[in-house]
Design brief:
two-stranded antiparallel sheet, 31% helix, globular
Length: 210
């Protein structure tokens, strides 16, 4: 029979080892990638996941009653690609590397944006596209669409658009409006998971300056 003191020492060793492993545990974006450097409003930002194992999704995004579930491909027959978090991060890295042909767009209204957004994104609420005149201004001034005798989309930016998540209709509304205006589906990406998934994964969030 193993002496009781030996059992107690063994249990203590297991507890200390487990605590040490918990303290040293890293929360990765993907295998081998702990963080990436991106840009937000001209300043460098380290994008990573929350490292505390006690971290939980923020209270605001806990309710389960909101909205209606968006389909995985809500824009068919238009071939708008639905992407996930790693796709968004890849686009952010391209932007940080100097690629100005890409825009990550938070399509939510300001009341939502103030609760946090993805670093590297720009705010263009879906409501901006309700006015044809304002929509045309955005296409020309921000999306590099050339207004001549007919619209020229040859230099149009790739738009990565998101809102609150799979229950939110704000970015789908903006995308549908753009498609009706002739924006190439191949240059629109839909991040369906939105802020709900971004928060759930503990990814870095920034807040607008008040």
């Amino acid at each position: 029979m193993i002496p009781r003191i030996a059992v107690l020492i063994a249990c203590l060793f297991v507890q200390v080892t487990s605590a040490g492993e918990k303290a040293e545990r890293k929360v990765y974006i993907e295998p081998g990638v702990l963080s990436v450097e991106i840009m937000h409003e001209g300043k460098p930002v380290t994008l990573m996941r929350e490292q505390s194992t006690d971290s939980h999704i923020v209270e605001f995004f806990r309710p389960t009653y909101r909205g209606k579930i968006q389909p995985m491909h809500p824009f068919e027959p238009h071939a708008v690609e639905t992407i996930g978090e790693l796709g968004v991060i890849e686009y952010l890295q391209q932007i940080a590397a100097g690629d100005d042909s890409i825009l990550l767009i938070d399509s939510r209204t300001s009341a939502w944006v103030k609760r946090g957004t993805i670093p590297g994104s720009v705010s263009i609420p879906f409501t901006e596209f309700k006015s044809p005149e304002r929509a045309l201004e955005i296409l020309e001034e921000r999306f590099d669409v050339i207004m001549a005798e007919s619209w020229d989309f040859s230099q149009a930016k790739t738009l990565v658009m998101f809102c609150n998540g799979i229950w939110c209709p704000q970015s789908p509304a903006a995308i549908r409006r753009l498609l009706k205006m002739g924006y190439p589906a191949a240059r629109i990406k839909y991040y369906r998971g939105g802020m709900q998934n971004w928060f759930a994964l503990g990814l870095t969030v920034v807040y607008p300056q008040r």
